[in-house]
Amino acid sequence: MNINEVFTLRNRIINGETIYEMSKLKPESIDLIFADPPYFMQTSGVLNRVEGTQFHGCDDDWDKFTSLADYEAFSRNWLTQCRRLLKPSGSIWVIGSMQCIYILGSVMQSLGFWIINDIVWHKTNPTPNFTGSRLNNSHETLIWAVRDKRAKFTFHYKTAKFINGGKQLGSVWRFPVCSGNERLKDSEGRKLHTTQKPQALIERVLLISSNMGDIILDPFGGTMTTAAAAKKLGRQYIMIERDKDYCVHGQRRLDAVEFVDSDEARAVFDVKPVRVTMQEMIQAGAFTVGESFTLKDGTHSATLLEDGKLSYNGGIIDMHTCAARAKGLRAERVNGFDFWYVMRNGELVSINTVRENYRRMMILQ
Ligand SMILES: C[S@@+](CC[C@H](N)C(=O)[O-])C[C@H]1O[C@@H](n2cnc3c(N)ncnc32)[C@H](O)[C@@H]1O
């Protein structure tokens, strides 16, 4: 296998040391990076709940560094690799908590990354502060950045708006922490990984900043949440993780994931409408020669001809001029798609809707 070929590594988990493995990949070969690096939490990891049970936070070996300088040097090395691997139009998301996000952001800026947004992941069910000694820590931060200021990156603005119920999507995202069935368990039934991220959070990242078929790299794979999101949304992935056990469980998780097609996954809201002609739609069966075009109230019937024109009041004219005449407007021409209706399943339907459905069908083919 040619180790430089990103192609051969697509949809694979690489079990190895991330900086070394990234150094083997081709420059400018990755569309999007989602990185959830060690936090350098510096805690003992065990906290006592009020009722006496123990909560196990993150005190894993992979989160240990000798000093802040050591952590910063590690961060600089892997982020340097990320910058080398990103396509000029690619972007990177880095998630972290208060312990590490400032160092990560500072290193990113010093390497030349240009920050697009920082997003607050507001945890709707955070771990309580058991001792009541400080505020309950209920968020993490995601930094979204590009290689440099001039980079033209993917952002599906309308898709983001759609998934936010029609309102412009802001930079505070509310998601619960990963729990219940979503949480991977080890053979003893304990949680496999201390910091498994909710898949919905990463799905949102992929939906708004990547396209179908894009290659997504996650240099700190863990339970392979990024790959699960990528596979579900029709993206490709390259995952790197040094812990063999996480890789094995992660692969099992991925084997059970199936692609789910949707308008959001294809970002159809952000795709510029393709130009389609009446003749093309007639040929495809979206309209039928000889059918009636009427105004919204069902009056002023015109007949559709083979070349897409309308037969109206004894003459043959294009549908835009015809619409202006039927409406009795002063303008010589208007957009016929705003005025004409056809009968579908016993109801009058705008020809614009018929055209939109046709476009959608074309995109999904
Ligand atoms: C914060 S966790 C990622 C969790 C992941 N996002 C998920 O949802 O499961 C960081 C992961 O990086 C891995 N890791 C840490 N240092 C690494 C390194 N130098 N090379 C490869 N993997 C590393 C750890 O084993 C750990 O699973």
Molecular structure report:
This protein has 365 residues and is an alpha/beta fold. The protein folds into two domains: 6-270, Vaccinia Virus protein VP39 (Rossmann fold, 3-Layer(aba) Sandwich), CATH 3.40.50; 278-364. It is 30% helix and 21% strand. It is built from twelve helices and 16 strands. The chain has helices at residues 6-9, 18-23, 68-85, 101-111, 157-163, 199-209, 225-232, 244-255, 263-266, 278-283, 319-327, 351-364; strands at residues 12-15, 30-35, 46-48, 54-56, 86-96, 114-123, 139-146, 172-175, 215-218, 236-241, 292-293, 302-304, 310-312, 315-317, 341-344, 347-350. The chain has an eight-stranded mixed sheet with strand order 1-10-9-2-5-7-6-8, sandwiched between helices. A four-stranded antiparallel sheet has the order 11-12-13-14. Strand 13 and strand 14 (315-317) form a beta hairpin. Helix 3 (68-85) packs across helix 4 (101-111) and helix 6 (199-209) packs across helix 7 (225-232). The radius of gyration is 27 Å and the shape is elongated. The mean pLDDT is 93. The protein binds S-adenosylmethionine (SAM). Residues 17-18, 36, 38, 62, 193, 195-197, 220, 222-223, 225, 240-243, 246 line the site of S-adenosylmethionine.
